[in-house]
Amino acid sequence: MSILNIQKDHSRFRKIVRGKIKENLKKYISQGELIGRQGKDTVSIPVPQIETPRFRFGEQQKGGVGQGDGQPGDPVGQGEPQPGEPGEAGKDPGSHSVEVDVHLDELAEILGEELELPKIEPKGLDKIQSTRDRYIGIRSVGPETLRHFRRTYKQALLRQISSGTYNPKNPIVVPRREDKRYRSWRTENLPQSNAVIIYMMDVSGSMGDEQKEMVRIESFWIDTWLRSQYEGIESRYIIHDASAKEVDRHTFFHTRESGGTMISSAYKLACEIIDADYPVDEWNIYPFHFSDGDNWSVDDTLTCIQLLKDVLVPKANVFCYGQVDSPYGSGQFIKDLREHFPDSDDLIVSEIKNKDAIVESIKEFLGKGK
Questions:
Q1: Domain for residue 120, yes or no?
Q2: What is the pTM of this model?
């Protein structure tokens, strides 16, 4: 088989795999199994085993329609029980799935297509600059490390032919100094957009393992999409009950806390992190807060509203609040946000009643393209 045929088959296989992922994307998101299969840059996705349809010859002398004894008009019998029917042991293998490694960028592209997510227009593009060396041509001077061997050989060959010193029977080409050619380059300044995601989660006693799992699944897909939109991205994690603290990713999703809830403690810490490390004119800022909607008091909720209006919403690309269902939470906080930020594109709220609601929640958060 030629290399070209192999490449065509591989391309066709990737298209089939991509189609299977799109068909089952909602299942992959709601089940959350992909998170445990994540590598550094890829995710292993189980897809049904793919076989090319083909004709198979049956075994001889097994009978069938048009074979064996019988007269015209005789009814066709049901035959012997087929392997795989209820109550009958089979000898053939069952259906299997194979695991295919998919790059996170491709997974983000599929997510964007299926949820119709618009591309994000980052802010701060003219503030952060990175450089890139771009090779733009050939010149006759330069360092030996950039010598273009093919161009040098061609130039030496042309010189020898034109001067009559080239011997086809003894084709030796020896470049001279004037034959040498070197790659030329130019250093370009490139705008670079950076982003920070600040995750905040209520870990009070009313937030159980099921609620944290929904947050973990949703944050994986949010990360996957936002990382596909920015050259550089950072993630910060805040947990809170009656007080807030910054933690690492593992602690964020696995900590067990109890006690009351003061949401303002998380918002105050988020403001401090933004002021200290992320200038608004250079960073795209995405705060995400997840809670079951309980808060300590009306006064603390008013403090949260003031922090949102004065600091967090103006400095963020978009502020997202996701409220997960809990049998112990009142669910009041999302109502307060809707009251104070009616029809706002800069503060988006979403109710996450169960894992099946994660897909729609992601679309609500990221569907504005901010």
A1: no
A2: 0.66
